[in-house]
Task: inverse folding
């Protein structure tokens, strides 16, 4: 399968615990995005990487959230001290980046439930 | 401030008929518009896009129309099929360094057999 892959698909955690999600983008896509989607809303932009550089972060990304893309391939999103408000679908997307078009290809998402 | 708006939460259409999904935007700096389709428990799937320099783009059963003066776009699906039943998201981008997408809240399309 050559699409965007996200793991795990589902995560249930207790409030206050740390969680980490992984995203493997489409091979050779140098742009990688994280979005968050809550019930009844469209996906909201969280952060953007071009290769290994994190170039933009949304105000939605509090200091409990950190994302990395260490070698410009896969990316991780960590949430520390989770809160119930963090419950959402976390989506990763990638874009080739070598043409100036914004079409991004999404993974299946990680559904986080904080109890 | 919702820059991309989809005012119809749901739409029901008979199989074989035309589905028209609407989207309005407020930011005149947007230079690209996209439609995504989403099934439950899956990520959004890219459908079709249009540059702001065009007013129509067609791909098979899907056509997107852009009216810049009205800041309005629409997605037409002809003929509609039961497999088209999903949530449709309109998204916009203003290019620049990130090409991040701003999404609407979605419209649930139900195509009745």
Result:
């Amino acid at each position: 399968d050559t699409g965007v892959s996200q793991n795990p698909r589902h995560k249930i955690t207790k409030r206050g615990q740390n969680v980490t999600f992984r995203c493997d983008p489409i091979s050779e896509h140098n742009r990688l995005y994280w979005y968050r989607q809550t019930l009844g809303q469209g996906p909201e932009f969280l952060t953007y990487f071009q290769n290994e550089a994190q170039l933009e972060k949304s105000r939605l990304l509090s200091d409990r959230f950190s994302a990395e893309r260490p070698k410009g391939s896969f990316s991780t999103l960590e949430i520390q001290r989770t809160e119930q408000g963090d419950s959402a679908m976390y989506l990763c997307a990638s874009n080739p980046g070598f043409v100036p078009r914004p079409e991004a290809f999404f993974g299946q998402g990680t559904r986080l439930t904080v109890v | 401030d919702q820059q991309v708006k989809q005012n119809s939460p749901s739409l029901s259409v008979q199989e074989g008929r035309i589905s028209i999904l609407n989207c309005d935007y407020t930011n005149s700096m947007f230079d690209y518009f996209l439609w995504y389709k989403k099934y439950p428990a899956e990520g959004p799937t890219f459908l079709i896009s249009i540059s702001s320099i065009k007013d129509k783009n067609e791909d098979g059963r899907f056509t997107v129309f852009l009216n810049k003066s009205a800041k309005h776009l629409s997605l037409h699906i002809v003929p509609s099929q039961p497999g088209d039943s999903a949530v449709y998201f309109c998204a916009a981008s203003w290019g620049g360094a990130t090409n991040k997408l701003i999404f609407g809240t979605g419209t649930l399309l139900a195509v009745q057999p």
Remarks:
- The interface with chain A takes residues 4, 32, 34, 36, 41-46, 49, 89, 91, 93, 95, 97-106 of chain B (CB under 8 Å).
- The CA atoms of residues 85 and 110 of chain B lie 5 Å apart.
- The mean pLDDT of chain B is 95.
